[in-house]
Amino acid sequence: MRHSLAVFLLLTLTACGSLPTGMPTDEKSTATADELYTAAKSDSADGKYERAIKGFEKLQSRFPYGRYAQQAQIEIAYAYYKKGEPAPALSGLERFVKQFPNSEHLDYVLYLKGLVNFDENVNSFVTTLFGQDPADRDPAPLIAAADAFDELISRYPDSRYTGDARLRHQYLQVTLAKHEIAVASYYLRRGAHVAAINRAQSVLTDYPNTPQTRDALQIMVQSYAALGLDDLKLDTQRVLDLNIAKDGIRPSRANFQERETRWWQFWR
Hints:
Strand content: under 5%
CATH topology of the domain at 31-100: Serine Threonine Protein Phosphatase 5, Tetratricopeptide repeat
Number of strands: 0
């Protein structure tokens, strides 16, 4: 009998020890929407993102049409972003845009969508410069970030998030233009002159306000010269000269057919 009692007490203590340190389970089952939201928000603020996600999901399941329905969905995406899990964060934000296209929170959703793609991919995109050909790098996530920031800027010019979004968008424009120049010069060095011209032209059309337009024109001049298209070469050179005369910005290199050597490439 004493053995059975000891086992019962042990199981009871073990069960109590496994309860979460936040709101007790029985209280969660009877908690109001305000209480659930406050508890989950507190977990998120404390960096307990997994618990926050579960708390917001509980709020969604119990009050799917309540006052926190939209906010809970955004908070879940934010928690995944802070956890370093961009895929569920982005899928949640995409779902929000489809469900609530006229939401008062849409400016923040667009900002967060851009931020997830930006923070997750800018550093990894830059580090792929080490030992990898430019044509092998995928700029799609950065393009998605730029598109989200661009939509925020155009639709909500007075939003509190627009100022930061504009700065990030400008940075992305230059980064993506540099990528196109790297790919164009890669093609130029390999004698793929038509491909080099096409990539250079994409800089002029997609990133016209970046300094890389001068590099694009220089690559086009060299490509037309290699193809024996003297008229196009001279026309492009005139455009380049006019732009240099206007603001003094010159191409970053005189000859894009020569490989640009960086410090980590000395032994290659």
